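Journal club prep, notes for RB
We'll compare a predicted complex against what the paper describes. Inputs for the zinc ion case:
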Amino acid sequence: MYIVIIAIFGLIVGSLLNVIIFRLKSGDKIVWARSKCLHCGHQLSAADLVPILSYVFLRAKCRYCHKKIDWQYPAVEGVTAVIFVLGYLKFLSPVLTVANLPAYLIFLFFSGVLLVIFVYDLKYYLILDEVTLPAWLFAFLANWLLGFSIFNLLLASLVLAGFFLFQFILSKGKWIGGGDIRLGLVMGAMLGWPMVLVALLLSYITGAAVSLGLLVFKQKSWGDQIPFGTFLTLATVVVLLYGEVILRWYLTKAHLL
Ligand SMILES: [Zn+2]
């Protein structure tokens, strides 16, 4: 029963994240304003804004001008709902205690921020400082309140950002962008040490696998830019959820070898 409520809550937050992503791009102030169709500018009614359902019933087209609605909208809503439910299963189930609630709420906030960075980098090849820098401060504060030491969070932030900075200097900004360095700070403060290393390894593995897949299927060619921030944010969410499991699995495997 809780899962249904949390999934619906995730859908609603997901549609809010879509609005934030859109307003970050258009430069509008993030205040409550009625959403409009991107093509014809028609104000959307409440019935047009029901997460996923509107998209399905309108058959991916605007009710007024019949132009296509970007599939980003239902995708972000659906993914947010799934992440919220997975977080519930990790943080609040099987034992639902009030003590675990702060960790869960902080996880929800982290994953919302990471989703915004993910979609924005995927679409525009850019990681915005106005997202990463406040997120870094918040993550620092939140994890400190959850019991991490300041030293641990600083270490994780600076090692990862320093590693990216090193690559940035070495490649003169070709391998990695300035936004990735700031994202490294955020990841460190969200994950702490040593989980940040698990996320780093995971993002290189998925990044390499996806790049290879795109090359093989001729979707990209050598030298094409691939937004690394998408792999970093994805790996961060996965490690927030399953970091301990991955680390334990890795350590037992390494031991057997
Ligand atoms: Zn329209």
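Talking point for the session: Residues 228-256 form the longest helix (29 residues).
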